[in-house]
Amino acid sequence: MNRISARVAAISASATLAVDARAKAMKAAGRPVIxxxxxxxxxxxxxxxxxxxxxxxAEARFHKYTPPGGLPELKQAIAAKTLRDSGFEAxxxxxxxTNGGKHAVYAAFATLLDxxxxxxxxxxxWTTYPEAIKLAGGVQVDVLTDETSGYLASVEQLEAARxxxxxxxxxxxxxxxxxxxxxxxxxxAIGRWAVEHDLWVVTDEIYxxxxxxxxxxxxxxxxxxxxxxxxxxxxxxxxTYAMTGWRVGWLIGPADVxxxxxxxxxxxxxxxxxxxxxxxxxxxxxxxSAVAEMRTAFDRRRQAMVRTLNEIPGVVCPxxxxxxxxxxxxxxxxxxxxxxxxxxxSVELAELVxxxxxxxxxxxxxxxxxxxxxxxxxxxxxxxxxxxARLGKLFGEAR
Length: 399
Description:
The chain is of the alpha/beta class.
């Protein structure tokens, strides 16, 4: 008999976390590694949020179990915040507070999918989506995009991938890993296409506040009100408020879906940490001034990274308009000789970069599109400049 179930054995480790862990281990061993791997703001959580958590520790009611679906006051605040930020109106009873955004992704697919149900997923995609779909028994159908379209999928591409088994579309804007942001008219067109074919839409909006230049975040749930009964909105405090370690996310959807997902959570994790929920309450109830400061820094780094990456021969980097990632093509460098080696894939090229330049990047294979790197610009300006300079020096030796 197999010691590990086939279902769990099929899960791949998070490539982004693995790269980050290896970079940190090398750094701890004394090597000056610069990590572009983790999708994590380099800012501390704003002070007023930390203070709310400290105060919550002294509240006796938070020392006990609370409702598995989330603190009532937090669910109310999430509903209000969602209306404020995206224009989507939901009742607090349509909110489930989860153990981070990843848990919201898992809960959504576990609740919606039966074995064999197909989910359209635009590639490149975040590494967790395939695993959550697989665990739910679903079948991922990739809709491939590349740098020529700015990593945006068209309605025509989605329609070509749709079959009678298609149950849901996963829609992500701004995107991890590409930073792509769909323009409002394209969001609406995709939403109307989903309504026409009676599809569920699971939309991950965790980067909603991180958009730059003339780009505008548009919630598909707001752009197409007719989707209301078949849309599930995923979000959380991790990226917007620099709270990756606090582990608070949420799922908003039709009441029956949320009730079912809450039942699942009641048997898997019960309530999210009450102290973390109190911190999240302070975050979503407060103003966005701290967020604006972080976004300004990210924007400066974004522009610097894209400019310097595109100066490196063999690297082509479209301008990301959201999140805090760049997703350059390195296809021209694969197969070329660099310091006596000829990397045959972006995985091998990333290994070479880590060993020779002491720079950690995530290869495109992790996101369903070989031939690319994902680089996060959520790190200090000096490290960013030094890291890109090392890449330029190494790749300048390619023959």
